[in-house]
Amino acid sequence: MGGMIIKGRPTAIPWRAVLAWAGHHDLSKAEMALLDRCLIAMDAVFIAHWSEKLKRSLGK
Q: N or C end: fewer C-beta atoms under 10 angstroms in the chain?
């Protein structure tokens, strides 16, 4: 029986995780909203970079 390695793919940080982190660090709602917007932007850049890297590795 053969095996295979499945590579994971990045996804956006869940909003609930941001909310929990912000709560743990006593961030205000405005601070949490700013953090969430920054993370959304960073997630988009990272996922796009990862996708391009995958396309290059597959020769597309």
A: N
